[in-house]
Design a protein that fits this description.
Layout: H1 5-13, H2 19-31, E1 49-50, E2 56-59, H3 68-71, H4 79-90, E3 111-114, H5 128-143, E4 150-154, H6 156-166, E5 179-181, E6 187-191, H7 196-199, H8 206-224
Parallel strand pairs: 2-3, 2-4, 4-6
Antiparallel strand pairs: 1-3, 5-6
Helix pairs in contact: 4-8
Length: 239
């Protein structure tokens, strides 16, 4: 049977491969934050979200304990998501500037959002082993997004994961605004993560993120002129 995004979503949300992450995500979902005491937490792995015809994919780190682990959608229901979705709306990738829950009407055009790790980790720090265990979900998901040509990585964790996926060797030093060409011709654009420790301190500002997203749109348009991927070979994971 051919793979599909629906099949990947079903498989991802049923995964229990990492005992530490399973225990943490479920503990958070039981105990809850006081502000969300009346809500039913998702408490499971979180699948990717967006436009299946996306040319741009945005890669974060992992679901937030009281954000996506509560709502069941990437970057939904927390301050990081508020910052990201407002930027996606300003740059034409999202139909609205905020996302509070999965049924809020948010839709993405030309973009997909995902992460290397699908469960909320303690202290927001997944281990390399957990990242590697989760890697097949990312590979299956991205393989089904046939038009991808631009990868926007939010932070060093995403940068390292996608450099491995795309076979970027040697890996240049991560820096906000850096642009890296993958061996297959895909483009990787770097941004600081949209976490509060970056946005509240001014390390990452709205104009800084907007510039990266505008550039992602421009690179995707350049790649589309020759058809899907602009004649580039398909994006497949590095061995």
């Amino acid at each position: 049977m051919a793979d599909s995004l629906v099949a990947v979503e079903a498989a991802v949300t049923a995964c229990r491969a990492c005992p530490r992450l399973v225990a943490w995500r479920e503990e958070v979902a039981r105990e809850k934050r006081a502000a969300y005491a009346d809500e039913d937490y998702w408490g499971r792995p979180v699948p990717g979200f967006g436009d299946p015809a996306a040319r741009v994919v945005i890669i974060g780190l992992a679901p937030a304990a009281h954000g996506a682990n509560r709502t069941g959608r990437m970057f939904t229901g927390d301050r990081s998501g508020d910052f990201l979705y407002a930027a996606l709306h300003r740059t034409g990738f999202a139909n609205q500037a905020a996302s509070d829950h999965r049924g809020d009407g948010l839709a993405l055009t030309g973009a997909w959002i995902t992460a290397p790790v699908r469960c909320a980790p303690p202290a927001n720090k997944p281990t390399p082993e957990e990242r590697d265990t989760c890697r097949p979900w990312l590979e299956r998901e991205l393989a089904l997004l046939a038009d991808l040509s631009v990868f926007v990585v939010l932070g060093q964790f995403a940068y390292q994961a996608m450099s491995t996926y795309l076979g970027v060797k040697p890996r240049p030093t991560f820096a906000h605004g850096a642009e890296v060409e993958a061996p297959n011709g895909a483009t990787m654009l770097c941004s600081y993560h949209v976490s509060q420790q970056n946005t509240f301190t001014g390390k990452l500002t709205e104009p800084m993120l907007d510039e990266v997203l505008h550039r992602a749109r421009a690179r995707a348009a350049e790649g589309s002129r020759g058809g899907a991927r602009g004649g580039r070979p398909p994006v497949t994971p590095s061995a």
